[in-house]
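Let us work through a complete example step by step.
Step 1: write down the sequence.
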Amino acid sequence: MLVTLRRASRCAVSGAVRRRCLTTAQMLERSGVSPLDPTPAQLSKEQFGHFDAEDRTLLTLSVLLRDMCAPEHSPGEVELPAILRNEHALRRLFEQALRGYYRHHLGPRGYSVRAERRPWPATGDPADLAFLPNLNADVVIRGHGEQVILECKFAPIFTHHQGKTMIKPGYFRQLVSYASVFRGEFAGETRAVLLGALVDGSRGRDLDVEIDGLPVAVRQVDLAAGPAEIREALAVAWSPVD
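Step 2: predict the structure and record it as tokens.
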């Protein structure tokens, strides 16, 4: 981490970030940390305990910042193992990335951000209820008297049927039904957002509708854009319509 901070103090674009990195590096050195740069082999042997989750995260970020490379399906300067083309794994990664983004930016503002799993509010014979699936909300943002039920789709969210472009019916029904159940258990305002990854050939556009008093927004984010554009798109997706 010390070596990474030293490097960041020289290459960061923001002057304020460069100064913070340098100050933190100097603080670590004054505390007795030696500026030794471990090899990847040494890092791979590092053992983490149950209470070391934050340490592991910081080391992972240090490696990412130092290498500044991310795996992609195209030739580059650094050879990496073949990337697993697993739709389920990529979908979960997309959901976790969005939760992490909103938790990072909204947590300090007093919001909780989490995935939530619960049974349907159904009654009947327990043997019959056992056949019902659970509600698995991807992202639930809650705080300051409001909650946002956000469903993430790492896929096109529009389809073309009988000459008409429309939201995929299953996606829309899932979002509205989930949000309706969550709204019944919450005293404040509830909003619903369907957020999909914009891919080549994606149809449709941003939409804002209201269903039985429930505000519903449909948004797409272009993951091929730059980091600043993606952050702005995610911020706009969550923000209520003025």
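Step 3: interpret the result. The CA atoms of residues 64 and 70 lie 8 Å apart.
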